[in-house]
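The protein record quoted in full:

***
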Amino acid sequence: MRISRRGSSFILRRELLNRTYSSRSFVEGLKDLDSGPGGCNAFVTPIDVQSLSNRGLKAAIKDNICTSDFPTTCSSSMLQRFQPPYDATVVRLLKKANVTIVGKTNCDEFGMG
């Protein structure tokens, strides 16, 4: 089932809880909404849907929070190649709880906006 562009976050949450979508198909839908025609460009890292399982929680991390798996640019060209050698505490705790990080989301440069 594909995610509709007309759905609000509340509708998507309800449908996820009712198991209308699998977590993998939900992330696939987010990828389509993000990169398709008229997409919102919410993700700054490509989402690798093929590596995701249907099980467990998924999370996207704001691009000003350090993750060792993804570059952290704070949406700035100055940090375009910065790859943190560590995870921020919140990321470490999410991983410890078996949450899969699917990508990094866009923010105003350095999250100052």
Notes: The longest strand covers residues 100-105. Helices lie at 9-17, 23-35, 89-96. The two ends are 35 Å apart (CA to CA). The beta strands are 58-62, 100-105.
